[in-house]
Amino acid sequence: MREYIINSCGVSDCPPEWSWITGENGFGDYDIWAAFRGRGKISVGGQEFDVSAGSCIVLPPHKKIIASHDPNDPLLIIHIHFFASNENEAPVLLSGKCVSVRDIVFFRDILDRVLICYYRNLPEKASMWLSAALSELDAAVDVTPEGDSGSKSRPMIYEMCDEINSSRGAPPLLSEFAKKYGYSEAYLGKLFRKTVGVEFSGYVINARINKAKILLRSSDYTVGEIAELLGYCDACFFVKQFTKMTGTTPGRYRRS
Fold this sequence. Notes:
Layout: E1 4-13, E2 19-21, E3 30-37, E4 39-44, E5 47-52, E6 55-59, E7 65-69, E8 76-84, E9 98-100, H1 104-119, H2 123-143, H3 154-166, H4 174-181, H5 185-196, H6 200-218, H7 223-229, H8 235-246, H9 250-255
Antiparallel strand pairs: 1-8, 2-7, 3-6, 3-8, 4-5, 4-7, 6-9
Helix pairs in contact: 1-2, 6-8, 7-8
């Protein structure tokens, strides 16, 4: 098992006026920089990349970084600063490449586990999950053609993901997206699964559960009120779905 030391990590919900520029020598460690919402650009040592939901770059040490985004479509970023305890295990081949992850929901879950373990002072488990994240990026590099900017359908699918993640109340239906983009539900569902790596329905469920987690930890809403805010008609069904997806009830999750 590769061992990594995490220096810092977190989630940045970038405000519209956000931009980022480092000094000429950047940082002294590696930094996983993964976007899960929005659109923007990042320059790594003078090489510029377009970024959107599903884009991930392992920023190398000692490189100047410049980043910005569309203020009307702001970025949501997970960042993890780290270095390898053994230089031979440093992600040299990955660093400086912009990778489109194969399964956004799965990759987000891995990074969330890194953050949880880090903040619970569980460095070995955090290192294990970070190793899993880097392995997932390794696999994504293997299937991403050099210079590939994505198929014509990818921006549309990422726009769907953005709308699902930013929606209030019940999320949009696949039939609504199909009507919006002029495709059949069956065909659009196949495009979504091919691009994101999960079924449309599974992505929607994960998005709703992630929103529920945030509300449980950051608000005083009751479980019933959270279910209503997320568009569930039945609070009992919400509790059942949350428990199935997380392995614990909403109440226990809030107290943990």
